[in-house]
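Sequence, please.
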């Protein structure tokens, strides 16, 4: 099988280039600036990659900047990678993984605004890794993040530094490891349903400094756990630090 590399450069228009190299893996690199982008990607097979990192550690693609962005990305197979960073208000993403040992590593709003985001994520498989960061020092507002997982031995590390975040998780499977933080804002909410043995769950919900005009920063955590040998640690406080 040949390796295909697809590079996308979008400056309110699209330019596509593809060329083959001698491996079994497919790769999509995206560099985009402009509003109202709708991106559909379906990757099937083993060892595919989208953006920012590659199999030889030499790529730096997938900076995405704009508003009203829509992503619909499906990776079907094992050991697929989705790496990237983007800045964009009023953006939505529907992400789906089916397979084992896949990696999702997204960095949203590190420099610039990332308000009014909505993400719907479905993962089916074992030993997958999720590292998701949104907002730094309250650079984002209004996040709705829904995660559904069916599988075991998955690892999730989610850091949310926004105002008004709702983080819904529905996890089914054994030996899953979840580490999540909501910080520095008002009206945070975490709703977690977990069914499966040996869960390791760490939840940090830190209100920090209330936004201008807000006198009370509310935080709500709701858990529905059906698990043997689970370990759960909750850290909820009116502070901007997790120590």
């Amino acid at each position: 099988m040949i390796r295909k590399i697809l590079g996308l450069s979008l400056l309110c228009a699209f330019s596509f280039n593809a060329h083959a190299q001698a491996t079994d893996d497919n790769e999509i690199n995206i560099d985009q600036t402009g509003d109202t982008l709708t991106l559909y990607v379906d990757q099937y097979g083993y060892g595919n990659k989208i953006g920012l990192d590659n199999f030889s550690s030499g790529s730096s693609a997938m900076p995405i900047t704009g508003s009203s962005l829509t992503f619909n990305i499906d990776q079907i197979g094992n050991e697929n990678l989705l790496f990237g960073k983007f800045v964009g208000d009023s953006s939505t993403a529907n992400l789906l993984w089916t397979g084992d040992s896949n990696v999702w590593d997204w960095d949203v709003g590190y420099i610039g605004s990332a308000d009014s985001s909505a993400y719907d994520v479905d993962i089916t498989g074992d030993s997958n890794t999720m590292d998701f960061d949104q907002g730094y020092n309250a650079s984002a507002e209004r996040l709705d993040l829904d995660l559904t997982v069916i599988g075991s031995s998955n690892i999730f590390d989610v850091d949310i530094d926004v105002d008004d975040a709702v983080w819904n998780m529905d996890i089914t499977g054994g030996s899953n490891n979840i580490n999540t933080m909501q910080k520095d804002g008002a009206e945070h909410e975490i709703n977690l349903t977990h069914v499966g043995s040996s869960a390791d769950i760490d939840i940090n919900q830190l209100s920090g400094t209330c936004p201008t005009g807000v006198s009370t920063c509310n935080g709500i955590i709701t858990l529905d756990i059906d698990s043997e040998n689970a370990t759960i640690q909750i850290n909820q406080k009116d502070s901007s630090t997790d120590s």
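Residues 1-24 have pLDDT under 50 and may be disordered.
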